[in-house]
């Protein structure tokens, strides 16, 4: 257990201090040769999770390797990892990383409304889409520059939502 906590500490330190280097558990078996028993235990510990709503599994080693402080749910992911180290292998919410459970971002629904609102602003008139009337009011009168900026931002947001 202490070995696994130390890997979490090493991972976080690697982001806080450029001179600190984290070596991934899953990828670099040779690096952990002297700690092979701890590495193997960490590789074999399975967190029973969900991925996009379906039952899934992720190893504790992979979860530690995928902790990213810049991720929107870093604290939630860290909690899942620390609880798994303590033996709780059935988290209440899914482990979310940049390539896993990305639909869970808490602002996704709001960004969809903003995208719809910008599209409604650009197209003018009424719409059946979910829009934010306050944003339409703030945008005010449509000008060529506002139209271009709104179209550009709407496209950027929409493309991110479709990932």
Provide an overview of this structure.
By secondary structure, the chain is mostly helical. It has two domains: about 100 residues, no CATH class; about 55 residues, no CATH class. Helices cover about 50% and strands about 5% of the residues. It is built from seven helices and two strands; from the N terminus they run ααββααααα. It has a two-stranded antiparallel sheet. Helix 5 packs across helix 6 and helix 5 packs antiparallel against helix 7. It is elongated, with a radius of gyration of 22 Å.
Quick summary:
With 163 residues, the chain is mainly alpha-helical. Helices cover 51% and strands 7% of the residues.
Give a quick set of tags describing it.
163 residues
Distance between the termini: 36 Å
Low-confidence stretches: none
Across the major sheet, the strand order is: 1-2
State the shape. Answer: elongated
SSE blueprint and pairings:
Blueprint: H1 2-16, H2 36-44, E1 46-51, E2 54-59, H3 60-65, H4 74-85, H5 108-123, H6 133-139, H7 144-161
Antiparallel strand pairs: 1-2
């Amino acid at each position: 257990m202490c070995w696994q906590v130390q890997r979490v500490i090493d991972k976080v330190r690697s982001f806080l201090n450029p001179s600190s280097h984290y070596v991934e558990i899953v990828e670099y078996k040779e690096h952990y040769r002297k700690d092979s028993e701890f590495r193997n235990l960490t590789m074999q510990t399975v967190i029973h999770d969900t991925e996009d709503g379906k039952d899934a599994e992720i190893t504790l080693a992979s979860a530690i390797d995928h902790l990213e402080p810049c991720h929107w749910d870093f604290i939630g992911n860290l909690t899942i990892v620390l609880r798994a180290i303590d033996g709780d292998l059935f988290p209440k919410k899914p482990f979310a990383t940049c390539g896993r459970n990305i639909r869970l971002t808490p602002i996704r629904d709001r960004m969809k409304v903003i995208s719809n609102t910008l599209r409604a602003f650009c197209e003018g008139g009424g719409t059946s889409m979910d829009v934010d009337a306050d944003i339409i009011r703030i945008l005010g009168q449509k000008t060529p520059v506002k139209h271009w900026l709104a179209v550009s931002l709407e496209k950027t947001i929409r493309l991110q939502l479709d990932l």
